[in-house]
Amino acid sequence: MADEHDVAGANQVGDLRLRIDQIDDQLMKLLNARSACAVEIGRIKRRAGVAVYQPEREKWILDRVERNNPGPLDSGALRRVFERVIDESRRLERLAGEALDKGQQDT
Length: 107
Fold this sequence. Notes:
The chain is mainly alpha-helical.
Protein backbone atom coordinates (compact mmCIF):
# COMPACT_ATOMS: atom_id res chain seq x y z
CA MET A 1 0.00 0.00 0.00
CA ALA A 2 1.39 3.40 -1.00
CA ASP A 3 2.21 5.74 1.80
CA GLU A 4 0.39 9.12 1.74
CA HIS A 5 3.75 10.88 1.72
CA ASP A 6 4.84 8.88 -1.34
CA VAL A 7 1.70 9.89 -3.22
CA ALA A 8 2.01 13.54 -2.18
CA GLY A 9 5.69 13.52 -3.15
CA ALA A 10 4.92 11.98 -6.52
CA ASN A 11 2.26 14.62 -7.14
CA GLN A 12 4.67 17.40 -6.21
CA VAL A 13 7.33 15.97 -8.52
CA GLY A 14 4.79 15.74 -11.31
CA ASP A 15 3.72 19.34 -10.76
CA LEU A 16 7.32 20.54 -10.72
CA ARG A 17 8.13 18.61 -13.89
CA LEU A 18 5.15 20.22 -15.59
CA ARG A 19 6.48 23.63 -14.49
CA ILE A 20 9.93 22.71 -15.85
CA ASP A 21 8.34 21.79 -19.20
CA GLN A 22 6.61 25.18 -19.28
CA ILE A 23 9.85 26.97 -18.45
CA ASP A 24 11.68 24.96 -21.14
CA ASP A 25 9.09 26.16 -23.67
CA GLN A 26 9.72 29.76 -22.57
CA LEU A 27 13.50 29.25 -22.75
CA MET A 28 13.17 27.82 -26.26
CA LYS A 29 11.17 30.86 -27.41
CA LEU A 30 13.62 33.27 -25.80
CA LEU A 31 16.68 31.50 -27.21
CA ASN A 32 15.14 31.52 -30.68
CA ALA A 33 14.30 35.22 -30.34
CA ARG A 34 17.89 35.89 -29.26
CA SER A 35 19.14 33.80 -32.19
CA ALA A 36 17.03 35.79 -34.65
CA CYS A 37 18.77 38.93 -33.38
CA ALA A 38 22.15 37.24 -33.87
CA VAL A 39 21.26 36.41 -37.48
CA GLU A 40 20.43 40.07 -38.16
CA ILE A 41 23.60 41.20 -36.41
CA GLY A 42 25.59 38.78 -38.59
CA ARG A 43 24.13 40.32 -41.74
CA ILE A 44 24.82 43.86 -40.53
CA LYS A 45 28.38 43.00 -39.49
CA ARG A 46 29.09 41.41 -42.88
CA ARG A 47 27.78 44.45 -44.77
CA ALA A 48 29.85 46.74 -42.53
CA GLY A 49 32.97 44.56 -42.74
CA VAL A 50 33.02 44.02 -38.97
CA ALA A 51 34.40 40.81 -37.45
CA VAL A 52 31.89 38.37 -36.00
CA TYR A 53 34.04 37.71 -32.95
CA GLN A 54 33.82 40.64 -30.52
CA PRO A 55 35.70 39.52 -27.38
CA GLU A 56 34.98 42.73 -25.45
CA ARG A 57 31.23 42.34 -26.03
CA GLU A 58 31.32 38.69 -25.01
CA LYS A 59 33.26 39.55 -21.85
CA TRP A 60 30.72 42.29 -21.05
CA ILE A 61 27.82 39.81 -21.42
CA LEU A 62 29.48 37.17 -19.24
CA ASP A 63 30.47 39.69 -16.57
CA ARG A 64 26.92 41.08 -16.56
CA VAL A 65 25.39 37.60 -16.21
CA GLU A 66 27.65 36.79 -13.26
CA ARG A 67 27.03 40.16 -11.62
CA ASN A 68 23.23 39.94 -11.94
CA ASN A 69 22.89 36.25 -11.06
CA PRO A 70 20.40 35.81 -8.20
CA GLY A 71 21.02 32.04 -7.93
CA PRO A 72 20.48 29.25 -7.10
CA LEU A 73 22.62 28.44 -10.16
CA ASP A 74 26.19 29.38 -9.26
CA SER A 75 27.98 31.95 -11.38
CA GLY A 76 30.35 29.42 -12.94
CA ALA A 77 27.48 27.25 -14.13
CA LEU A 78 25.56 30.24 -15.48
CA ARG A 79 28.70 31.48 -17.21
CA ARG A 80 29.13 28.09 -18.95
CA VAL A 81 25.51 28.15 -20.14
CA PHE A 82 25.93 31.66 -21.56
CA GLU A 83 29.28 30.77 -23.14
CA ARG A 84 27.45 28.07 -25.07
CA VAL A 85 24.63 30.45 -26.02
CA ILE A 86 27.22 32.98 -27.23
CA ASP A 87 29.07 30.28 -29.21
CA GLU A 88 25.84 29.36 -31.00
CA SER A 89 25.01 33.03 -31.61
CA ARG A 90 28.45 33.59 -33.11
CA ARG A 91 27.93 30.54 -35.35
CA LEU A 92 24.60 31.93 -36.54
CA GLU A 93 26.16 35.36 -37.18
CA ARG A 94 28.86 33.70 -39.29
CA LEU A 95 26.31 31.63 -41.25
CA ALA A 96 24.10 34.66 -41.86
CA GLY A 97 27.06 36.61 -43.20
CA GLU A 98 28.07 33.72 -45.45
CA ALA A 99 24.50 33.41 -46.74
CA LEU A 100 24.47 37.13 -47.48
CA ASP A 101 27.71 36.77 -49.46
CA LYS A 102 26.33 33.77 -51.34
CA GLY A 103 23.14 35.67 -52.17
CA GLN A 104 25.16 38.58 -53.54
CA GLN A 105 27.20 36.20 -55.69
CA ASP A 106 24.05 34.60 -57.11
CA THR A 107 22.64 37.93 -58.33
